[in-house]
Structure formats: structure tokens, C-alpha cells
Amino acid sequence: MLWGHLGKERADLVDEQTIEFLKLLRARIHSETGRRNVFRVILADSHAQINGVPASGYLETVRQKLERDGFEVANLSSYWKKWGLNRTKVLAHAEKVRLTNPRLELELLRGARFYRGGSPAGHLVYYAMRSLEKPHVTNEFSGHVFLTYNSPSYREILPDLPIGYIRARPGTSRPPWIPA
Questions:
Q1: Number of Cβ atoms within 10 Å of the Cβ of 48
Q2: Which of 20, 21, 24, 145 is deepest in the core (most CB within 10 A)?
Q3: What is the pLDDT of residue 55?
Q4: How many CB atoms lie under 10 A from the CB of residue 79?
Q5: In 10-101, where does DSSP find H-type helix?
Q6: How far is CA 42 from CA 93, 100, 148, in A?
Q7: How far, in Å, CA of 30 to CA of 174, rounded?
């Protein structure tokens, strides 16, 4: 699963509640299957950088809390480097994007308010990032389940893996990294 960053300075109670939920989910899967499952959380530092989110200690405090609770944690930027992805490629791809799915376009437009990276439009940049990542994530994590806070309308830009749609905490699907 990806864990984003949209401007929070440090992990807070919402992040703690989300980690508790993930711990319960991991325990439930273990009790149902009898298998120890690896939960790998990928901190979306590359997304934050392209979105124009100022650097802060947020992702590092999230990392510390996740690792404390036995989650594997990696930065998306390390995968991007391996896959040959970068800001230039994403922005060039965003210039060519033509959305044909009205439901997805509406969802993306709702999230565009978080983009501070200049032109092109933020929703197209997000689409470009995720569509360029999709084949790499699919190959890198073949045999895994991808957990996401995105709605099913995002399916075309999510990896071709089994998808688990999750909520951050009871009563809301708002991801923990979105400031209140």
C-alpha cells in the first residue's frame, strides 16, 4: 500500500488510529489463514515532491511508527529510481493524458486541490504518475494484494493485482495523510 503526504508536519492521532487498524487487519488475516503476512507500506515521497508538498518530518514519523509495529517500510523514490521514473517523465506523460472515464475524472478533480506543482493540471499529473507506476508495481509485487484508500473508480490506474479497498479508520475513507 502507498502512504501519501499532503502537508502534515508530523504523524498524529489519525495516523496512529490507521496503524492500529492495519495491525488489526494483519492479525485478522493471520488468524483466518494461519500465515504470517508481510505488510509493506510504501511512503509516497515521490508523489509529495511532484505535488509540490514541502518537505517535513511527517513521512519519517510515520515510518518510525510503522516500523515500531512490525511493518516493512520503503520510500517510493527508491522504487522510482529502480524503474527509471522521474518528474520529467511524469510531467511529459501528463501533457499527453486524455481521460476517457468520466467517473475517474471526477474523482481525480476532487483531489486536484492538493496539487501545488504548477501546470499541467494536478489531476492529470496524478493520473500520469499512477499510470506510469502501474506496470512496475504490478511486476514488483506480483503475488501480493495491493491495499488502497482509492475508490474502485481508480481501478484503471491501480496495479493489476488483487485489490483490497480499505478505510483509514471506522466511519471514514479519508486517508490519514490528508490534513483535517
A1: 24
A2: 21
A3: 78
A4: 17
A5: 13-33, 45-50, 58-68, 76-83, 87-96
A6: 23, 29, 11
A7: 26
Q: Quick count: other Cβ atoms within 10 Å of Cβ 136?
A: 16
- Distance from C-alpha of 45 to C-alpha of 53, rounded to nearest angstrom: 9
Nearest by Cα to 51 from 96, 108, 136: 108
Short-list 70, 75, 56, 58, CA closest to 20: 70
**CA angle 148–149–150, rounded 5-degree value:** 90
pLDDT of residue 119: 53
143: phi > 0 → left, psi -120 to 50 → alpha, else beta; which?
left
Q: List per-block mean pLDDT (blocks of 10 residues) for the chain, which spans 180 residues.
A: 92 93 92 86 94 88 97 97 97 93 86 65 90 98 93 94 83 78
Query: How far is 50 from 124, CA to CA, in rounded Å?
Result: 12
Is the CB of residue 53 less than 8 Å from the CB of residue 7? Answer: yes
CB 123 within 8 A of CB 101: no
Say what angle helices 87-96 and 122-140 make with each other, to 10 degrees.
Answer: 120
Look up residue 124 and give its amino acid: L
Does an H or E element contain 122, and which? helix 122-140
Whole-number Å distance between alpha carbons of 70 and 67: 5
Phi, psi of 169 (to 5 degrees): -165, 165
